[in-house]
UniProtKB/TrEMBL annotation:
This is EAL domain-containing protein. Residues 142-212 form the PAS domain. InterPro entries: Biofilm_reg_signaling, CheY-like_superfamily, EAL_dom, EAL_sf, GGDEF_dom, Nucleotide_cyclase, PAC, PAS. Signal peptide: none annotated. Keywords: Coiled coil, Phosphoprotein. Residues 209-261 form the PAC domain.
Amino acid sequence: MALPIQIHTLIVEDSEEDTELLLRELQKGGYDPIHERVETRESLQAALDNRRWDIVFSDYTMPQFKGTEALALLRERGNDTPFLFVSGTIGEDRAVAAMKAGADDYIIKGNLKRLIPAVNRELREAEVRRERKKAEEALQESNQTLEAVVQSSPLAIIVIDPTGNVRMWNPAAEQILGWSAREVLGRPIPIRPEETKKETRDREVKRFVNLERRYKRKDGVLIDTSISTSLLCNNKGEISGVMWIIADITERKRAEATIKQMAYYDTLTALPSRTLLHDRLQQAIPAAADENKSVGLLLLDLDRFREINDTLGHHRGDALLQQIGPRLHAVLQPSDTIARLGGDEFAVMLPRIDSEQAALAAGRLLKALEKPFLIEGIPIVIEASIGIALSPEHGENPDSLIQHADIAMYVAKENKKGVALYSSKVDKHSPRRLALLGELREAIENNHLFLVYQPKIHLWTRRVIGVEALVRWQHPQYGVIPPDQFITTAEHSGLIQPLTLWVVKTALAQCKIWQREGKAPNVAVNLSARNLEDPKLPDQIAELLEASGVGSASLNLEITESALMVNPAQAMETLTHLNNMDIQLSIDDFGTGYSSLGYLKKLPVHQIKIDKSFVKEMATDEEDAIIVRSTIELTHNLGLKVVAEGVESEEVLEKLAALDCDAAQGYHISPPLPPSELNAWFTDTAPAKGWNL
Ligand code: C2E
Ligand code: CA
Ligand code: CA
């Protein structure tokens, strides 16, 4: 037998006897009633306050209370506990009224057989009511939460009913799309995607498919959105609407675009970056191959840009770099890409060309850079070297093409030809730039450097008046490496200090040998800008002079005009110090820097070397000839001697003599030579007396 079911039973009844009867009946029906009997309003109220009851039985009329009042009291309190009248006959009218007032059943005391089925039913229904109420409360709670979510969501939430009218439009929708809920509720959705022409054509197909896209706000502003849609169904499973959740991703898109721009474009020049060049090469190489054509990659490096930067300041250097792109653009096709790879290195990609066209383009690019650049009113002449590599011959992927163009560019710099096409033969020479740095220190320590000497001759007597020491690196693997390829590296790494001291020491030792042999050429050594910044330099040179036993007047130091301008005050101090030591000083590469005459006048220097770029072609180039002539005049006016370097022909040599130039140096006279090969010079042409260069 099943255990009796415990029910908390409240009995509104004046008769204890009837109460007992009722309880017994309940027990018979399988219940274990825990009961309380009340017979006044107050005690009923107290009982209701006390606990929750499973069921209430009530007599209809009692001496102190009425069943209908008890019922009313319960219902007023919002209490929906099953309420059954158990009473003597009250007449049909009253019974109906009682039921109307909210009683759940009416059982006649004389016929309690109906009691248990009624209790069973009422308890079951009460249980159902309770469950439903719980569910409703939960639903209400979740509705409230949902409503809060919808109201405060940063996402636009829109519901459209099956007729296409807006049924929900949250505050974020107002914000993002511009229309207020009042304007759109109950009306067709106002936003329209921005369509491209192609999309208009297949609009029908796309309308329901492509929802990621740009929309026009109420104010006409275009916004990028991300939209997710879901169908809403009612509980019969019918479609009751469509919900759109829209995120405004305009900012994100903008940020993405900025990031892309930053990766793909150089910030200084706004030219495509190495990354973008790489991408374009990746596409262009196979495309050109399909047509049996080449992609030409031209790598362009400015010569001596670092000097310009050091001399004129970085902001002017930057301004110059910004002018390069437009110059190059002017002589290229719109389909060509100009990229800045970093520093003063630029690249040009020519899709679909052959080697001849590439060489022509390179020529055009160099020509485009010839005209002086005006930076804050200062005319600046720059030169560049271009290396060319072509796909597929020199590389079938971006990296190898860039690498080989880079090698070719170094060859171009080395030969001073301006342009070089990649050839696998030079491969073993050029990619060594970086590796060399590590080896340079060892080279200095192990005497792998050596000096060659180039004579300077007196123009009238054609006798040697001095030699310029030029350093070389005898590399065990690569052979002889020219200074252009490691001096810059040495300057950057600080190795220029020991290198310079090595050169001075070696040159003085050689000078001493010549002096012992009765020859007395003055020996010139090149200093770099970094040397001038070193306050220890004068003392170190003094020590070397002392140790060598060579008089300081036999040493000449060449300093380029641009090196002087890196830090003019410091240069002045160092030069003054060196001059006081009785060392000869020359300004090298004169005409390529930007020093002022006023500054030059104050410098304690003895000679000026006109840069070879003016001298080489002065026989044919009228402009160069004018520059050389006026430089000679100017220098003489300052009381200084002039040396023309880069003399490559007899014609130039004669012209220089006619212009009253003092001395000359160049391949026509002699290339730089090792000491053993210089002897002929000293025997044939004894040093000119009275010259103090
Ligand atoms: P620079 O001081 O202007 O030296 C003259 C350069 O012109 C030398 O190149 C020389 O070989 C070259 N040259 C001589 N005659 C002619 C000619 O008729 N025509 C042409 N086109 N060129 C001629 P090199 O030896 O390759 O030296 C290049 C530069 O390297 C030098 O230019 C100098 O700035 C630097 N350098 C060389 N040795 C040293 C050194 O010991 N220390 C420092 N700091 N720099 C050095
Ligand atoms: Ca020099
Ligand atoms: Ca020079």
